[in-house]
Amino acid sequence: MNRFNLPDINFFEKSPEDIERNLLFNIEKETGLTLSNADPRRKFIQGITAYITQERNNLDYALKQTLLTYAEDEFLDHKGEGFNTPRIKEKASVTTMEFNLEEGRVDVLVIPSGTRFLVGEDVFFATEKITVVPVGQHRVEIFTICTETGEIGNGYLPGEITNLVDPIPWVKSVKNLTTTSGGAELEENDSYAARIRLVPESYSTAGPDGAYEYWAKTTSQQIADVKALSPSPGVIKILVLLKNGEMPSQELLNEVLAVCSDKKVRPLTDKVTATGPEIVTYDVSVQYWVLESNAALLNSIQAAVTNAFQEFLKWQREKMGRDVDLSELIVRLKAAGAHRVAVNSPMYLKISSEQVAQDNLADLDFGGLTDE
Predict the structure, then answer these.
(1) How far is CA 160 from CA 64, 164, 178, in A?
(2) How far apart are CA 134 and CA 329, in angstroms?
(3) Pairing label, strands 139-149, 92-101
(4) At which of 256, 276, 296 does a domain end?
(5) Which residues lie closer than 8 Å to 265 by C-beta, 6 or more apart?
(6) CA 185, 187, 188: angle at the middle one, nearest 5?
(7) Is residue 181 part of a domain?
(8) Strand 123-127 vs strand 109-111: parallel, antiparallel, or unpaired?
(9) Mapping DSSP to helix (H, G, I), strand (E, B) and coil, where does residue 293 land?
(10) Phi and psi for 188 in degrees, rounded to 5?
């Protein structure tokens, strides 16, 4: 499957029937022989056809892997290397921990690097640096990172991490101040290809929005969409939206700000800020019917329609400035097998470039079987 809504291409004819037909045509043209289907020589031609079909499929795939539209996995890594844009590796979740200390402390407190905190059954966070707390200071905030990469450490709410694994004198209690976030698996092919496509924008330091968007996306594979706006001269506002429509944590925004404020990226006169978009909620209520002639396939059609509904909701909340147009949902549900679709909520909602639409109430009901 190709990307970027470009038309599909094929480098070779791969239909076994067409290949066999062309072989027989050329044999008859050169020799005058017409080979019947029972002719052993025809069977030999059919064997060669199978081999040619396989090789053409292999060659077609190999040639497509040279194109950013089709490249995947190691082939895509090589495309990125040509642009000095490596795939983003796995990342660990982060949070800020608060230490509350005994007030009667009479000595300097050293909190070692690697001090661990447990949440759940086996998820650990740990400090990265040594922190020295002077006498008289009874509270300190320390940046911590999950000991495992990936999404395993994401989603723990403030105050949910309270178990200090490695005892430290004078510590009364600990808790996380921010929701744990930032953990991600290896960057997926589609998001990596989209980022490679933006590389030419990064070459300019004259302040184009594409350059800021490219550099912001290099900070995390969790980022689904970025917009760079200039509300006033010399001021750049970078809006960041994560996959599945999630809002970025302050830790991630700080990372985006640090990358986009680098002197090799930011024009000297720009003042850069980073934030999340404004959320606009909407309701969607849909009922659908399936043809009676498809009753035998009802379970699979219902599963496909439900999946199409959920994919629409995700598609809607992963892009800033995308208007809510439920005619798109109708098209998707019908393509999944619904025969008739009735929408019982407003069909259209305008969304500005600084906003993102997220579903509040989302109902999908099966209306039953219907005839044509």
Answers:
(1) 48, 12, 10
(2) 59
(3) antiparallel
(4) 276
(5) 202, 205, 211, 212, 215, 259
(6) 105
(7) no
(8) unpaired
(9) helix
(10) -75, 160
Same domain, 63 and 97: no
Output the CA–CA distances (angstroms, integers) from residue 125 to 120, 167, 246, 290, 371, in the order listed.
Answer: 11, 14, 22, 50, 58
DSSP, collapsed to helix, strand or coil, labels residue 349 as strand
Residue 335: both structure tokens together: 């393509």
Q: What is the average pLDDT score of the chain?
A: 92
**φ, ψ for residue 344 (rounded to 5)?**
-110, 35
User: Which residues make Cβ contacts (< 8 Å) with residue 354, sequence separation at least 6?
Assistant: 227, 229, 239, 277, 278, 320, 321
Distance, in Å, from the CA atom of 160 to the CA atom of 174, rounded to the nearest integer, reads 10
SS3 94: strand
Q: How confident is the model at residue 205 (pLDDT cuts 50, 70, 90)?
A: low
Distance, in Å, from the CA atom of 276 to the CA atom of 355, rounded to the nearest integer, reads 9
> Confidence class of residue 4 from pLDDT cuts 50, 70 and 90?
confident
Please, what's the b/e burial string for 79-93 (b: 16 or more CB within 10 A of its CB; e: otherwise)? Answer: bbeeeebebbeebbb
Residue where a domain terminates, one of 129, 159, 176: 176
**DSSP state string for 31-91:** H-----TT-HHHHHHHHHHHHHHHHHHHHHHHHHTTSTTT--HHHHHHHHHHTT-PPP--B
Domain range spanning residue 149? 92-176
State whether 341 and 359 are in the same domain: yes
Three-class SS state of 331? helix
Count of C-beta atoms within a 10 Å radius of residue 344: 11
The tokens of 146 are what? 């999950």
* Total domains present in the chain: 4
**186 within domain boundaries:** no
Q: Report yes or no: 273 and 237 within 8 Å, Cβ to Cβ.
A: yes
Question: Residue 1 pLDDT > 80, yes or no?
Answer: no
Token code pair at residue 293: 């002639």
**DSSP label of 146:** E
Predicted structure pTM score: 0.70
Which pLDDT does position 204 carry in this prediction? Answer: 65
Distance CA 28, CA 22 (A): 10
Residue 105 domain-assigned (yes or no) = yes
